[in-house]
Amino acid sequence: MKKLALATALLVTTGITSASAEIKVGVLHSLSGTMAISETTLKDTMLMLIEEQNKKGGLLDQELVPVVVDPASDWPLFAEKARELLTVQDVDVIFGAWTSVSRKSVLPVIEELNGLMFYPVQYEGEESSKNVFYTGAAPNQQAIPATDYFLEELGVEKFALLGTDYVYPRTTNKILEQYLKDKGIAAEDIFVNYTPFGHSDWSKIVADVVALGADGKKVGVISTINGDANIGFYKELAAAGVSANDIPVVAFSVGEEELSGLDTSNLVGHLAAWNYFQSADTEANAEFVKTWKARMGDERVTNDPMEAHYIGFNMWVNAVEKAGTTDVDAVRNAMYGQELPNLTGGTSIMLPNHHLAKPVLIGEIQEDGQFDIISQTEEVSGDAWTDFLPESAVLKSDWQELGCGMYNIETASCIQLTSNY
Amino acid sequence: MERTFLARNPSVLVFLGALALFTLTVTILSEGLGIGFLSTSFIKTLGKTLCLCLAALALDLVWGYCGILSLGHFAFFGLGGYMIGMWLMYARTEEIVVSSLANVPLPPTSEEIRDAIGTQIFGVVGGAELPMIWSFADSLTIQLVLVVLVPGILAFLFGWLAFRSRVSGVYLSILTQAMTLALSLYLFQNDSGLRGNNGLSGLQNLPGAENVSQATLSILFLWGSALALGSFYIASAWFMSGKFGSAIRAIRDDENRLRYLGYWVESYKLLVFVVSAIITAIAGALYYPQAGIINPAEIAPIASIYLVVWVAIGGRGRLYGAVIGAAFVSLISSWFTGGQAPDIPLGFYTIKWVDWWLVLLGFGFVLVTLYAPKGLGGLVDQLVRRKSA
Amino acid sequence: MLRFLATFILVLCALGPAQAQDQNLQYILQDHHKAVERASRKTIDPLLKALADGKLPAVPGFLDAWRNKNVWMSKEDGQFYFLADPKADPVEIIDIETGEALGTHARKGMKQLKPNSGVRTILASALVEFQLKDPDLQTRTEAVLAIERGADAAHLPLLQAAAETEPNSDLKLRMSRLVRLLTIRFSKDTDARIATIKSFASDTSVDVRSALNPLLETRTNAAPTLPDTINLARRLVPGQQFSTDEAYDLLVKQGLAQPRQDLAARDAILIENIVDGRVGDAPVSTLSTEEARDRAYQKLVQLGQAPALVTRADVRASLDEHVFYEEYLEPDPGITTAALATLDSISNRVDLYATIDLGLDGLSLASIYFLAAIGLAITFGVMGVINMAHGEFIMIGAYTGYVVQQVIPDYTTSIIVALPLAFILAFAAGVALERSVIRHLRHRPLETLLATFGVSIALQQLAKNIFGTQARPLTAPAWLDGSWIINDIISISMIRIAIFALALAFLGLLIFILTKTRFGLEVRAVTQNPRMASSMGINPERINMLTFGLGSGIAGIAGVAIGLFAKVTSELGSAYIVQSFMTVVVGGVGNIWGTLAGAGMIGSLQKFIEWLNPSNTLAAQTYMIIFIIIFIQFRPKGIIALKGRAAGD
Fold this sequence. Notes:
The complex is a heterotrimer of chains A (421), B (389) and C (649). With 421 residues, chain A is an alpha/beta fold. Chain A is 38% helix and 22% strand. Chain A is built from 13 helices and 17 strands. Chain A has helices at residues 2-17, 36-55, 75-88, 100-112, 143-153, 167-182, 203-211, 229-239, 256-259, 283-296, 304-323, 328-335, 390-393, and strands at residues 22-28, 63-69, 93-96, 117-119, 132-134, 158-164, 190-195, 219-224, 249-251, 271-274, 339-341, 347-350, 356-365, 371-381, 395-398, 404-408, 413-416. In chain A, the strands form 3 sheets. In chain A, strands 6, 7, 8, 9, 10, 11, 12, 13 and 14 form a 9-stranded mixed sheet that branches. In chain A, strand 11 (339-341) and strand 12 form a beta hairpin. By secondary structure, chain B is an all-alpha fold. Helix content of chain B is 71%, strand content 2%. Chain B contains 15 helices and 4 strands. In chain B, a hairpin with a 4-residue loop joins strand 3 (344-345) and strand 4. In chain B, helix 4 (73-100) crosses helix 11 and helix 8 (214-241) packs antiparallel against helix 11 (265-291). With 649 residues, chain C is α+β, with helices and mostly antiparallel strands. Chain C has 4 domains: 2-119, no CATH class; 133-216; 218-328, no CATH class; 364-647, Orthogonal Bundle (ABC transporter involved in vitamin B12 uptake, BtuC). Chain C has 26 helices and 12 strands. In chain C, the strands form 4 sheets. In chain C, strands 4-3-2-1-5 form a 5-stranded antiparallel sheet. In chain C, strand 1 (71-74) and strand 2 (80-83) form a beta hairpin. The radius of gyration of chain C is 36 Å and the shape is extended. The termini of chain C are far apart. Classes of the chains: A alpha/beta (421), B mainly alpha (389), C alpha+beta (649). Chains in contact: A-B, A-C, B-C. Chains A and C meet through helix 2, helix 5, strand 7, helix 7 and helix 8 of A and helix 6, helix 11, helix 16, strand 12 and helix 20 of C.
């Protein structure tokens, strides 16, 4: 056993010796297990972006080398692989993670070793790490605008908040519940339901939602249902004949990728809120989609987290060029205020709280599985701590000026320098 | 007695020697205390592997020696981790909260501190208050006792019900699997009070040990894990070599015959089951501070089945078999899935081990079951016997 | 917005074809350019008013086109156009007013206007008048639908008139029903409203309830004495219908009582009064308990530096001085009484129907479990072989369905081909597994379990390598779309009915095979006593192989069915394996009827627990499994236990 361990050790540690004139980019996405379905796409996106950058001559006259590891949808393994990337492989930056729990698993490691990570997925907020840039949407960049759309444009008076039972839906729904109450929606007009991952038996829940309409108020569904559970949900919705005109459903976790797994002809008109849709009508996007399809095949689609990686990667490239080094602290300081054209038009700006200012888009599902963009806001600044919960409203994140991610404005003190995981 | 026991079981001495040598070598090669040849992440992997070996050892006690195939041992492993995790999270958060409240105009009341801790721990998952089950989380002693007590009681209740109704064999296996599934589904709920799907995280940061580097901590935990493995190995070997062990093995071979001989078979089985659960829980309590995060996915039925696979490949009914199996398969698995194994280009298709390792493991496991039912341990036995013959 | 809509509809009605065109449609639209380009419910009012005032004949056509996303904007000058064929490039542009072709334009320079569905509903509602008179039945039906979705008082007379002349009897029925519903909501004639309300006494539809419930909306109020001008719903007594705290908060909100001091306010006052590190006479450092802070506050009150606390006695006294009541927003008691009576009579039926619907859901879940488990009922239940790879046979079936659908695009044909093919493939896989592995491990059940588990992980990973990790689509043919709708409460999707039918068919088929055929006889003989059977000239090897193949093949068919209603992933099988085993064990091993009983119990139980706690489906699954574990402790042989020698052991 000892021999084996040593042999393994030799193989693991060989990475240390190969330091040279190349910049290493760690890609920490699950390639197996339950999350592979979503994350493999992001790994391919990163490989594509890195390849494109190398075609342009690399970065600081060095070649970018991707280091891909597979944390296998196993959350503790995310921490282990992150440590390996930072200490054994000596990567300069990590692009990775999808689920909140995987991010929380990486946080302590990346903060201990002062690494740099770009996290590309919409998330529940209530967090700010010095070492992580959040290029996905915070709740105020997705959930709140979508709810406003429901209230103002569709006149929804009764809400069904359906979610998978984990942190993102729980926190998002908690924020939304408070937000809706502030907007004058009574507590009994908010129906909340949580289902397990991969849930497939939706008949009762859909019936419950339909029954909500009995008191004459317009019902709308806000769905934070995750991953492939959506397939069963939408199939049941279609079977029950729930039309988007009667009970609109807006989803925060359903994008082009998820829709490619089902026939959308019965779902036309239901909604999704993102910062990006493949159907965005700009030249940059047409180019991006073309490169992606040329690389991966014509049937493949692009989605919001891919744009987040596109923005994150290019901003990082620009920041490294500005700083002239890949040193984490120098790059971090160079990141603030970085601007980059979005694929959907407009400009993303990196804020001192490590979130982006991005526009919010609302799309209606079409027959071909694409989204018709029917609403696009101005750039909205991502907010690490929500303004709609009393305990978070007093918190502020500003790494540039205050150097603190959890700063209490009332007591004017920094609660902690690490993030809460 | 001790001498005769060791004399009768030379393998115990060999094992302990190998374990000690292994620990020493790793320490010398480590970053924390040695020459820095082995990375900290690898030391952590080794430390965790030792804990898995301990869990495999515990499973071997019930399965290899007593014939009870438990497909739910990770329930105990996880519970042990959760119990120690609660203290780790609470104490770490308390330090943060107390220091952040140091400057407020009124000195904080204990309720305020507790509320702030609750917000800090549960704010992450959309809650704010500390649930009842966190009542003792501020005390390391009580949580350590709970590491033993909670899985012990669960094992006792489950075993008492099952053995009393003479549920055995395959039925029992499926029931244990249902038990771990129920527990993991329960913990997946956000309302379970243990942060649902997120679980407990940041466990690698020991409260009060902020100045000790992870490199050093990893070595300390490696020692702790090795010590636990060594001690339980001796204890298990000693018990199993005595009269008690003979009775246990007799239950495995023919339960009814032993019952006719007047043995109270149920209580023997229950005792072994509970002891095994407790050892597994201790392994879990050592494992998760090294892994850094525990969450319900760890307890899912598949994890327990992998544990069984390790023991089967290592060779059940031999303590060293279980240990070898767990160490060998879990390390080689992480090597193959870690992307370090070289791809094999076939021209028309490239075999990527990340994709094909599980296929290989699955079919390999079938082959072991078919052709080497005694596992790797059996091969060792054959070698030793051939030499001595 | 709706306030205005009524006048808009009336103005549109008054439009004549010969209106003087002193204004141009394009001109009005450009005037409200932003409201057209970025249409919103909030900003559309002035635009609609301007359009109505303009009295242009082209307006209805424009609104209809706009609603259907057929209006385009030139990016250069912001003018609005129709397009002859949006897919062409360059596109031919058409004037919105005259319908004349205006020449061509680069496709890139045109932007499609996409009003959101809220705006589209308003537009549809505004167009109702024209559509109700349209000769096309489809258009009239759409108009009725538009009214159902967004009714307005102005619609009532229009609809009444349309209902009288409607030639299509189905639509006429629908119209007159809608007239009754609108009467309840908008009619000025109280007697007619009451009569209509009463006429719905046995109708459980959601739309009826949604017309009646708003009539019963209440507002909670407090006053020194009960006013007699209100339509009283009920008196409230603090401490009974609502808590004394809520009652007091209501008084505070209405300015009838002093607000109470909460802890945060108390602490704020304490902090304000810190002087030289002391509050009152207490040093700040001692204020680390609630009691100490209370004492310090009392001291401040004595010193006159803080307002006095509202005590419990004060609260009680203010509550005693006031009455609390709920009043209906609807002032007419006749209407609220009638609505209440009608809703009462409806709600009994609603409860009954809801129970039936829950029963159907339970039945449907049971049939899914049964279908997933029925293959196991043979391999595990009858043969006693633990096959952990059973779930992967289900997966093989589902992927077969997917692949067949890729080759044969017609959904109906592909399903008909896929079902037998899935059976054959899974049968072959089962036979291969039996021959190569299980045969060698007979009488070592635990090792069979382990070996088949190895096969399970290998097959799952193989599926991932071949098909990728993405969920694959398996689409049901059109005749399985939709639901069987009995009424607004009881409905069940066709696909679930199909699964139920399939489960029943398999039950019958298996019972038939096992009890009526030679093969079934041999299976039972081999299962009960292989040696005796073999001495009777039965080849146990062959029987075992075929039985195992049969069980696996059925799992394959189950896979197609499950894939149709859920999704096709490599983890499809493992999601069902534990439940399947428990279904068989709970029902009683060795007996197809037992599996049926097991599936029935698990399915209905799960739905029942979900009904108890509708906000958390995960909890239902957890408690169901715990129940099963305990159930098996007390009935280890399952619901239908074999007795005597057949029970084996």
